[in-house]
């Protein structure tokens, strides 16, 4: 009989652990790696298909404000460097034909101000 409560606890933990969450920063960095040439101002007119696919996969994981804040902080720490690229990041969803909005995030942007549309 004591095994049933232990089993139920493990089952509950597995279910909670499997719920969607914001992508981890390493995942963000990997998925957005194809976007670097566009974001850094490459003269290429549009982001690559790989960039748009990675961006779509990441943005689909953002379900809550907390997810948005986490993604924003990942972008600040893994994507943005000394380049002046906030407006290029904000353009990505539109350029990729995605129904999402990303603010022009720079290293001073307050990610707690993110709102989900």
TrEMBL record:
UniProt GO MF annotations: lipid binding
Gene3D superfamilies for the chain: Plant lipid-transfer and hydrophobic proteins
Domain Bifunctional inhibitor/plant lipid transfer protein/seed storage helical stretches: 25-111
Keyword Disulfide bond tagged: no
InterPro entries named among the record's database cross-references: Bifun_inhib/LTP/seed_sf, Bifunc_inhib/LTP/seed_store, Plant_nsLTP
Single Gene Ontology BP annotation: lipid transport
Keyword Signal found: yes
Stored Pfam families: Tryp_alpha_amyl (PF00234)
Signal peptide from the UniProt entry: 1-21
Keyword annotations of the record: Lipid-binding, Signal, Transport
Family from the record: Belongs to the plant LTP family.
Entry function: Plant non-specific lipid-transfer proteins transfer phospholipids as well as galactolipids across membranes. May play a role in wax or cutin deposition in the cell walls of expanding epidermal cells and certain secretory tissues.
Name assigned to this protein: Non-specific lipid-transfer protein
Lineage: Eukaryota, Viridiplantae, Streptophyta, Embryophyta, Tracheophyta
Encoding gene, per UniProt annotation: LOC107761924
